[in-house]
């Protein structure tokens, strides 16, 4: 038997109902915020992610699925959504569109070669938004409000919004120099990843899963000490907007994002439920990027966005015991007796379905009792039994499966009876 690849999953029919519910709800929420859907290829040039995500990141160095195509070009299955959306923005000259800023959202499979663990897959589904063309604290606050709106709309509680400012490029440069100076004397005691990051991306040492509890991390300089006036004022305005919106938040000066292009606002949404076993912590993450477009040979535009995992959202709902309203009652099950009735039912089903009726019949030649059990399993609201007598008399009993009551109508009127 050929098994499913490690780190992937089959989403079976009972689960796809939940996925469709979530995706439909997300589409509806995006309309409230004037975001338009964008769809980009599943694979892109490897250079896009090497430049757009950052050559020193774990994503590029360790996790990407890369292959050489028949044209001897290096291609990569997309590990995240932002770089591809920005590439499309640049290539399609969206900065010239009349409606600015450009507000986009996406939803689709991403691929990273990660260690298999609960809530993490090597193929996972990511929903994300990107707002490009406005550097405004109010835009940052709107995106943060949207994050909270999404999760609260599904009934989730125990949410904790964690924010930080990484500052502008000048602030980050000065801060990185301070981190190098701080960690250099003790870097030999850190993991190999941290050692390699010291001179390429020292901020990543702060969120290393292996070394984050070391004393040197706890006593490291804080970004807040190196923010210039521009960065401080920007972050203060973001927080003021959040206060005005009554959105609670926690500041964490050690919060950094794993990708190189972030500036100013960075954030994560956490689950803060003491009953969790630690399998789920971060539900969503994002931030502002003020140099990414130029890095990809685009115009001098700024953006902000976030991404969330549909798999983790589903896990959080399950942990909280939240049931999604996904089961739609089946309208009608047709029970047949005899070959003539069976042939009639095939045409009747076709007519009913064209009128928007959810209907089905037996295809396994089961006896009447077995067919009625199938109607129960489908949670059908109504059943009808068609046999030679019903065909001859043009009369049919429509049984309400919930009340048990029956109503006799003409067989030729059955489509009009159930017509939506």
Automatic annotation (TrEMBL):
Its main location: cytoplasm. It holds the Pfam family tRNA-synt_His. The keyword Oxidoreductase does not apply. L-histidine binds at residues 80-82, 112, 126, 130, 257, 261-262. The keyword DNA repair does not apply. Residues 1-320 form the Aminoacyl-transfer RNA synthetases class-II family profile domain. Gene3D superfamilies: Anticodon-binding domain, Bira Bifunctional Protein, Domain 2. GO terms for molecular function: ATP binding; catalytic activity, acting on a protein; histidine-tRNA ligase activity; transferase activity. Keywords: Aminoacyl-tRNA synthetase, ATP-binding, Cytoplasm, Ligase, Nucleotide-binding, Protein biosynthesis. It catalyses: tRNA(His) + L-histidine + ATP = L-histidyl-tRNA(His) + AMP + diphosphate + H(+). GO terms for cellular component: cytoplasm. Its EC number is 6.1.1.21. PROSITE patterns: AA_TRNA_LIGASE_II (PS50862). It comes from the Bacteria. Belongs to the class-II aminoacyl-tRNA synthetase family. This is Histidine--tRNA ligase. It comes from Staphylococcus gallinarum. The lineage of its organism: Bacteria, Bacillati, Bacillota, Bacilli, Bacillales.
């Amino acid at each position: 038997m050929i098994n499913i690849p490690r780190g992937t999953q089959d989403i079976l029919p009972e689960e796809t109902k939940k996925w469709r519910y979530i995706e439909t709800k997300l589409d509806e929420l995006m309309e409230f915020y004037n975001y338009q859907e964008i769809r980009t290829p599943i694979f892109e040039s490897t250079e896009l992610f090497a430049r757009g995500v950052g050559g020193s990141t774990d994503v590029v160095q360790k996790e990407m699925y890369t292959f050489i195509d028949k044209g001897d070009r290096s291609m990569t299955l997309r590990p995240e959504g932002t770089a591809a959306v920005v590439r499309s923005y640049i290539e399609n000259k969206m900065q010239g569109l009349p409606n600015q800023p450009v507000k986009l959202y996406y939803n689709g499979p991403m691929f990273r070669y990660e260690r298999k663990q609960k809530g993490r897959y090597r193929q996972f589904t990511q929903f994300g938004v990107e707002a490009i063309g406005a550097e405004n604290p109010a835009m940052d606050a709107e995106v943060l409000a949207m994050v909270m709106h999404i999760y609260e709309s599904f009934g989730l509680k125990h949410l904790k919004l964690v924010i930080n400012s990484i500052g502008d490029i000048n602030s980050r440069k000065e801060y990185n120099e301070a981190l190098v100076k701080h960690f250099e004397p003790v870097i030999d005691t850190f993991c190999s990843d941290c050692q390699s990051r010291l001179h390429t991306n020292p901020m990543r040492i702060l969120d290393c899963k292996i070394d984050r509890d070391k004393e040197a991390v706890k006593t490291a300089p804080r970004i807040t000490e190196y923010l210039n006036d521009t960065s401080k004022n920007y972050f203060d305005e973001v927080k003021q907007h959040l206060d005005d919106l009554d959105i609670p938040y926690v500041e964490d000066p050690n919060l950094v994002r794993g990708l190189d292009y972030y500036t100013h606002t960075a954030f994560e949404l956490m689950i803060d439920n003491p009953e969790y076993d630690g399998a789920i912590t971060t539900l969503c993450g994002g931030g502002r990027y003020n140099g990414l477009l130029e890095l990809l040979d685009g115009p001098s535009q700024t953006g902000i966005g976030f991404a969330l995992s549909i798999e983790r959202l589903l896990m959080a709902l399950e942990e909280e015991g939240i049931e999604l309203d996904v089961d739609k009652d089946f309208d009608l099950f047709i029970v047949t007796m005899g070959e003539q009735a069976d042939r009639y039912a095939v045409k009747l089903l076709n007519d009913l379905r064209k009128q928007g009726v959810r209907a089905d019949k037996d295809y396994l030649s089961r006896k009447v009792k077995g067919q009625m059990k199938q109607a129960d399993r489908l949670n059908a609201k109504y059943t009808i039994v068609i046999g030679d007598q019903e065909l001859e008399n043009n009369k049919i009993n429509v049984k309400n499966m919930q009340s048990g009551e029956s109503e006799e109508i003409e067989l030729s009127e059955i489509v009009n009876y159930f017509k939506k």
